[in-house]
Amino acid sequence: TTATSVSTGGLCTCAVLSGGTVKCWGYGNSGQLGNGSTSNQSSPVSVDNITTATSVSAGDVHTCAVLSGGTVKCWGYGGYGQLGNGSTSNQSTPVTVSNIDNATSVSAGGNHTCALISGGTIKCWGEGSDGQLGNGATSDQSTPVSVSNIDNATSVSAGFNHTCAVLSGGTIKCWGDGSFKQLGNGSTSDQNTPVSVSNISNATAVSGGERYTCALI
Fold first, then answer.
1. What residues have CB less than 8 Å from 199, skipping those under 6 apart?
2. Pairing of strands 62-67, 72-76
3. Closest by Cα among 63, 215, 68 to 154
4. Beta strands in the chain (DSSP E)
């Protein structure tokens, strides 16, 4: 079977296969492999009940996938609400993220998740302690909330405790934990709404790491 994309997380790896199924392998302690088990797996296992995936993103201890049609499903550790189903329970099989039916991509971070919505808006859910949900608050959210002041995003990347997005035209905005200057605005302050990254106007992609961010120019 041919893989069409792959994502490596903190403790596991997952791949979308041609045809729309997903397989994962690695550490499974919180159900992040999605096969109904919490056992580790040294070879790929099939994620339950997913046959129309278009992309997958493995976070620290949870995983999410976009399905054809624009819904999102997540599985694994849910202690901060990062599975998006209104609960803080772990899930060893996929659950549907509430109130999203037009996602084009998803990015799973440390304990939060963000989805790019058709039309250029972004929604995030999960841990919000550093402002990484971008909605002007620092509270956790177990269902998606809208990121403030973004309506023309072309991609989104959730880092460990921060998030960044490329906007149409090539600028980048970031929000969340800024203690290591990973928001790119010349500050070490946290930001609970998006701030512009300095001196970038022609980015085509962005990726948030644990305490840093990189952009493709």
1. none
2. antiparallel
3. 215
4. 3-8, 12-17, 22-26, 41-46, 53-58, 62-67, 72-76, 91-96, 103-108, 112-117, 122-126, 141-146, 153-158, 162-167, 172-176, 191-196, 205-208, 213-216
Phi, psi of 84 (to 5 degrees): 75, 15
Task: Provide CB contacts within 8 A for 150, sequence distance 6+.
Answer: 120, 121, 122, 134, 165, 167, 173, 194
Which residue in 141, 139, 153 sits closest to 194, CA to CA? 153
pLDDT at 179: 98
Residues in the chain: 217
Q: Please state the pTM of the whole predicted model.
A: 0.98
Task: Please name the residues in contact with 169: beta carbons below 8 A apart, sequence gap of 6 or more.
Answer: 152, 201
Chain position carrying tokens 């949870």: 62
26 vs 49: CA distance, rounded Å = 19
Name the DSSP class of 211: S
What beta strand segments (E) does 80-140 contain?
Answer: 91-96, 103-108, 112-117, 122-126
Please, are residues 30 and 62 in contact by the beta-carbon 8 Å criterion? yes
Mind listing the pLDDT tens digit for each residue in 73-107?
Answer: 999 999 999 999 999 999 999 999 999 999 999 99
